[in-house]
Specification:
This protein is of the alpha/beta class and 638 residues long. The chain is built from 12 helices and 30 strands. The chain is elongated, with a radius of gyration of 26 Å. The two termini are 33 Å apart.
């Protein structure tokens, strides 16, 4: 990596996005330059494999300890031996190290990043945030999608980054996903943390290979026209003594008070009141986007940054709010097409508003309210659902206030929560019938989509980091047909503009049935005129024949999808050539009668609107809520 003059004042002030180009280990043709920030340390020495781990004293200047060592080459391992103020001596990995040993070992690894392996210039040129496009994300744990063999010996069973790309890309292409989202790849000491308790924030986990192999992984996805999103953890870090905890004998990265210093997971919270910590995290985010061409960062546990310890009653953490807005604004400036996604379960306002509107400048916010309401509703026995009917309508009251993403993530498939399909009340067959209706509802609801691996074929076993997905169940017709249904639904989502354009514009969503508690039926329209989509959902356990829909104008519809189709293990033989035309009634309204099977959904596309003024096409308007239009929203590439 080419080094340049570094502004230490900017680093101390919290404005640096390039600190990784200065700190860490930077090899050249003769050796390697090492730098580590440890202002409170009495002494720091480099220990490494090149001299049998004998301490080599480093030199202090402005809180930075440095040493140039000849003969060091990429692939060599090292640590910093730090003498703290209380004379305790601890060996630490490099906070800015670009690689680490496989757990349980914890030394940093010298890596050369500037190897110019990327051939994805065409993809990077058109990289965009997708506000007016279909976004269909497949979330995976890199070690659990598939195993090379099932011996239970890791990492022998794991695919490396390059091998995983060869297996995963064809699957995502076949099943209509636009992006893959990887649970954190930053180095972590414990497999069962799934990467959310980091020790090496700049180091791709060695479980699946090297930094170069990860770069090749991303490059392969881009050549296949698939985006790569990475989980990023900017709120807390692991407490292992070789990591960031009490790094130089002071509270360098964490809060000094245990009350605010420790998270609910037993990790330590980053003290973002410190400029050096802000620069560390900003540089880390920029590092993944720059050096690995990552297309988006899903930021974990943002609610814990917005409010102290994630508890609204404890008040807003103003400095954390300022930090998030500053980091996101700076990342957008440097990477205009990258998606920044907030995992935030709070009602905090303007999470996705640009910083110029006093927002946090995320591009998307997970709609946790939609997720909880939907899954709670489906876990309710069918005969009770009429009393919970509006759990499925409430999200339409606010979907335009932020740019939302609809998540059914790993968190909903673990820890005795059951998988998505297994949460649904009913028999085995009823779970699948309702699951098909659930995903039709999800993929026609405003907002971008994210689903966890295995849900697409109805896996009933919870996620386990030691096991691959249950691919064997695809030999059962119900699971195989469910995957076939999901594949068809995804293709429709990708190819029907009404389902992704104007996602956040209230004028392009209209309820047709929203108060039929007794039948537990819902109907709505996405878009306007020819090409608009009409969706009817029956979440009751009864069939309804000749169910009446009312339209303001005459329309002709073609059925695009019926979840009860026998080819998806349903009970209906569907005639794909049937046209449905509304009938004019004496009161001037137009009616359409449909048969609705229990636990089913039907989707139609409006193919004709004989009334001339209803023929307008879907305009290509801004996808931010009206009060947020302008500013950097206009940089979105459609």
């Amino acid at each position: 990596m080419e080094q340049k003059n570094f502004n230490l004042h900017s680093f101390y002030s919290g404005y640096s996005f390039d600190a990784y180009e200065y700190f860490g280990a930077h090899p050249d043709e003769n050796g390697c330059q090492f730098r580590v920030f440890a202002p409170a340390a009495k002494a720091v020495a480099l220990i490494c494999c090149i001299n049998d781990w004998q301490p080599l004293p480093m030199h202090l200047s402005g809180g930075v300890w440095s040493l140039y060592l000849k003969g060091v080459k990429p692939g060599m391992i090292y640590k910093y031996k730090i003498v703290r103020a209380d004379d305790e001596v601890i060996d630490h990995c490099d906070p800015y190290g670009f690689g680490m040993e496989l757990r349980p070992n914890s030394a940093s690894v010298v890596r050369e990043l500037n190897q110019d392996i990327f051939t994805d210039a065409a993809w990077m040129k058109k990289q965009h945030r997708g506000h007016n496009s279909p976004i269909n994300i497949y979330e995976i744990h890199a070690g659990c999608f598939k195993h090379k063999q099932n011996t239970g010996n890791f990492p022998d069973d794991w695919y490396n980054y390059e091998e995983l790309a060869e297996v995963l890309i064809p699957y995502l292409k076949e099943n209509g996903y636009t992006h893959v989202e990887l649970m954190p790849l930053s180095e972590h000491p414990v497999d069962m943390s799934w990467g959310y308790q980091n020790t090496g924030f700049f180091a791709p986990t060695s479980r699946y290979g090297t930094a170069l192999q990860l770069q090749k992984f991303v490059n392969a996805f881009h050549l296949a026209q698939i985006g790569v999103i990475l989980d990023f953890v900017p709120v807390h870090f692991a407490t292992d003594d070789y990591g960031l905890s009490y790094f130089d004998g002071s509270f360098l990265y964490e809060y000094s008070s245990d009350d605010t210093g420790y998270s609910e997971w037993g990790t330590k919270n980053f003290n973002v009141t410190r400029g050096e910590v802000q620069s560390f995290l900003k540089s880390c985010a920029n590092y993944w986007l720059t050096e690995y061409h990552i297309d988006g960062l899903r930021m974990d546990a943002i609610s814990r940054a917005i409010y102290w310890q994630g508890q609204e009653e404890r008040g807003i953490n103003e400095r954390a709010i300022e930090f998030l807005a500053s980091m996101n604004n700076g990342l957008h400036y440097r990477h205009p097409g990258v998606m920044l996604i907030a995992e935030d379960s709070t009602n905090f306002n303007k999470v996705t508003a640009p910083a110029i509107y006093q927002g946090l400048d995320f591009d998307y916010k997970w709609d946790m309210g939609w997720m909880n309401d939907t899954l709670d509703f489906l876990a309710t026995p069918a005969f009770e659902r009429k009393w919970h009917y509006h759990k499925l309508t409430f999200s339409m009251m606010y979907f335009h206030r932020e740019t939302y993403m609809l998540p059914l993530s790993h968190d909903e498939n673990v820890h005795s929560k059951k998988t998505i399909l297994d949460k649904i009340y009913g028999s085995y067959e009823q779970k699948f019938a309702q699951g098909r209706a659930l995903y039709l509802y999800m993929y026609t609801h405003p907002g971008k989509k994210m689903d966890f691996m295995g849900d697409e074929f109805g896996m009933l076993r919870e996620f386990d980091e030691t096991r691959e997905l249950d691919w064997g169940i695809l030999s059962y017709p119900m699971h195989d047909s469910f995957l076939h249904f999901r594949r068809t639904l995804h293709r429709l989502y990708l190819n029907l503009p009404a389902l992704s354009q104007n996602d956040y514009h209230p004028e392009y969503f209209k309820w047709l049935v929203v108060n039929d508690e007794d039948h537990v039926v819902y109907a709505y329209q996405r878009g306007k005129g020819v090409g608009a989509v009409v969706v009817v959902l029956n979440f009751c356990d009864c069939d309804w024949n000749d169910y009446t829909l009312h339209f303001e104008h005459e329309v002709v519809l073609s059925e695009a999808l019926n979840t009860d189709n026998c080819i998806y293990s349903g009970n209906t033989i569907v005639d794909e050539h049937t046209k449905y035309q509304t009938q004019l009634m004496p009161d001037g309204t137009h009616q359409l009668k449909l048969d609705l099977k229990a636990f089913s959904g039907r989707m139609f596309v409006i193919t004709e609107c004989p009334t001339p003024h209803r023929l307008s096409a879907i305009p290509n308007t801004s996808q931010k809520p009206a009060e947020y239009r302008g500013g950097n929203v206009c940089q979105s590439k459609i």
